[in-house]
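RECORD TYPE: inverse folding
INPUT: structure tokens
STRUCTURE:
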């Protein structure tokens, strides 16, 4: 068991959390969930109401890490030291964009900026998933009562951005709401009023503890299958290793399932390593073919981000993000904090160049709601699941995405020209106000498509909202069951055609709960 320093948290779930080195070499459960992240924690918790569940997480438990727990340390937390114990694992896509993925119990809900906002209606309509909206609503509420804080008290920078959004025409003002509504709003947060994080890990407190075993530092290497002439191909178990290199095998009972919730990169990676994927590709890596599935690892997408960042002429201790402007094509959010010289996040926020000194920075960022460009992933190793797959998102490959970025940055330009933003200007020797940009400044002529497009390319970054790789109707059906294989589902963002709403974590946590409830209903009916 684990003993950790902690900050005012309910740690009841630690009663059933174990290191993989403590696990038996062979074990049997009703359900095995691979990935103890944003979807996996609520999913495993829900299934434990009636069945035995094994939840496997490759990372550890970050209960004594202030960079994870405290909002004031957000920028230090985004990309901490990248070793086996760090809560985030960095990677750079072939597009040259630095990115990160969660590697900790609770997943990316433990390393993000805490924004909590529900999905847009188009997400449900385009998802290819069979939804019961009454269960969707109750699933959101199940999450929210446990870990979401709602307050309309916001800091001065967020208040200024809210006013600038409205003054520049992103209306109406929808106040504090968790719903996705066009206009300007304040959203919920998984940081509470004291600035402490409450991630998906705390949803484990709702589990039936005698039915759930959570194993950390457990890296799943491959799935185990059996083929039967009458039933066809079925998943029956997983093989994982612990930090000592010992191999363990866990199997499922009759009528049980293996559910992959390892994330957009982890779930397709594990399928490919297990011999499920394009046959020609698997043969090129000498991976025995279990099932020819041409779409695994395909149709990956990441919502590109561009931003402006300024340093104000007066000190500010504002931290965090609480306000968003929502349009049909793009979203505008704001962030603030300190950018220390040693921060590994500096080159992400300010890629050209990043600041050489400690300073307060204020950012306005845009996110494309529906990028049309897609890419793919391939294995960095056919046998080592610890290595992040090689990823290409093909940002702006579809030029319509670049046009939408230009439109979004013009909207930010209009915000900078509103009266409320005057206070953030510095004064030159002639008494003229100007914004002290950190990194790229917006072009003087914002009607110049070429200059604005070049700005978007130079400031290209990510919100870490990548998705796809196991799309519905291509890899999984409307119930998230892997097409052609029994007893195997994928429940995470890899199944999403589009990223839900302004920020996906609310929907992914709801998703885990929702599918868990639907599985319980299926078992009861059958």
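DESIGNED SEQUENCE:
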């Amino acid at each position: 068991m684990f003993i950790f320093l902690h900050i005012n948290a309910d740690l009841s779930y630690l009663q059933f959390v174990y290191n993989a080195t403590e696990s038996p070499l062979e074990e049997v459960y009703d359900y095995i969930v691979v990935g103890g992240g944003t979807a996996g924690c609520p999913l495993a918790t829900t299934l434990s109401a009636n069945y035995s569940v094994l939840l496997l997480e490759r990372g550890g438990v970050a209960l004594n890490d202030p960079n994870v727990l405290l909002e004031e340390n957000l920028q230090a937390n985004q990309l901490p030291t990248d070793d086996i114990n760090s809560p985030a694992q960095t990677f750079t896509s072939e597009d040259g964009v630095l990115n990160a993925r969660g590697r900790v119990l609770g997943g990316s809900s433990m390393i993000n900026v805490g924004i909590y906002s529900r999905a847009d209606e188009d997400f449900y309509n385009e998802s290819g998933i069979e939804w019961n909206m009454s269960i969707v609503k109750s699933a959101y509420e199940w999450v929210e009562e446990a870990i979401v804080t709602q307050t309309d008290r916001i800091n001065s920078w967020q208040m200024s951005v809210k006013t600038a959004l409205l003054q520049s025409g992103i209306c109406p003002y929808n106040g504090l709401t968790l719903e996705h509504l066009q206009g300007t709003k304040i959203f919920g947060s998984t940081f509470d009023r004291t600035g402490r994080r409450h991630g998906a890990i705390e949803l484990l407190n709702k589990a039936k503890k005698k039915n759930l075993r959570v194993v950390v530092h457990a890296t799943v290497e491959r799935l185990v299958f059996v083929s039967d002439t009458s039933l066809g191909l079925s998943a029956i178990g997983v093989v994982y290793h612990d930090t000592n290199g010992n191999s363990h095998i866990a199997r499922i009972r009759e009528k049980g399932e293996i559910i992959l919730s390892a994330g957009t990169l982890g779930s397709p990676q594990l399928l490919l390593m297990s011999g499920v994927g394009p046959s020609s590709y698997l043969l090129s890596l000498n991976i025995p073919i279990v099932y020819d599935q041409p779409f695994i690892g395909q149709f990956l997408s990441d919502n590109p981000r561009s931003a402006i960042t300024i340093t104000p002429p007066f000190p500010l201790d504002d931290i965090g993000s609480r306000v968003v402007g929502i349009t049909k094509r793009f979203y505008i959010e704001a962030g603030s904090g300190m950018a220390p010289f040693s921060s590994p996040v500096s080159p992400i926020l300010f890629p050209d160049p990043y600041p050489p000194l400690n300073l307060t920075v204020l950012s306005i960022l845009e996110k494309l709601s529906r990028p049309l460009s897609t890419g793919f992933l391939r294995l960095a190793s056919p046998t080592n699941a610890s290595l992040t797959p090689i990823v290409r998102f093909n940002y702006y490959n579809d030029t319509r995405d670049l046009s939408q970025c230009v439109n979004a940055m013009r909207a930010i330009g209009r915000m900078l020209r509103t009266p409320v933003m005057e206070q953030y200007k510095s004064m030159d020797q002639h008494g003229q106000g100007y914004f002290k940009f950190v990194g790229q400044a917006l072009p003087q002529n914002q009607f110049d498509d070429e200059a604005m497009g070049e700005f978007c390319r130079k400031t290209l970054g990510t919100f870490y909202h990548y998705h796809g790789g196991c799309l519905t109707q291509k890899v999984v059906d409307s119930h998230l069951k892997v097409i052609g294989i029994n007893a195997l589902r994928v429940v995470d963002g890899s199944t999403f055609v589009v990223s839900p709403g302004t920020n996906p974590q609310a929907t992914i946590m709801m998703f885990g709960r929702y599918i868990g409830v639907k599985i319980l209903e299926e078992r009861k009916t059958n």
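NOTES: The CA atoms of residues 157 and 219 lie 42 Å apart.
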